[in-house]
Amino acid sequence: MLIARLSHLFMYIKLIWADGGYAGELVKWVYNTLGWTLEIVKRTDKAKFILLPRRWVVERTFAWIGNYRINAKDYSHDTKCSEANIYAASVRILLQRLTKT
Predict the structure, then answer these.
(1) Separation of alpha carbons 82 and 77, rounded Å
(2) Within 10 Å of residue 30's Cβ, how many Cβ atoms?
(3) Structure pTM?
(4) CA 28: distance to chain centroid?
(5) Shortest CA distance to 41 belongs to which of 32, 30, 33, 50?
């Protein structure tokens, strides 16, 4: 439902990475409905820790956003406030990167 609602806002998206829990009919639906590729990044049960391709991008992004105290704990009861805090942290991260160069 979320992908369908946001599809008109993010028309430039061509590829989505998702956890193994999203495998199945969703992959076909995303491709047939939106023309996007939903690539499932599966983990292995053989090793306790293994670096999965592209999964580090999501994990690292969550870590950067979580470095800001307001995002470390969920103090807000309103999702709009939480979303605004994440946007503010993302803007600050991007501005810090831009000013380094």
Answers:
(1) 8
(2) 19
(3) 0.47
(4) 20
(5) 50
List the beta bridge partners of residue 41: 19
72-101 b/e with 16+ CB inside 10 Å = b? eeeeeeeeeeeeebbeebeeeeeeeeeeee
| Strand (E) or helix (H) holding 90 | helix 79-100
Residue 10, CB half-sphere, CA atoms under 13 Å: how many?
13
**43 — phi, psi (to 5°)?**
-95, 165
Q: What is the pLDDT of residue 35?
A: 87
pLDDT at 95: 92
Burial class (CB in 10 A: 0-12, 13-18, 19+), 56: exposed
| 17 phi and psi angles, rounded to 5 deg | -100, 135
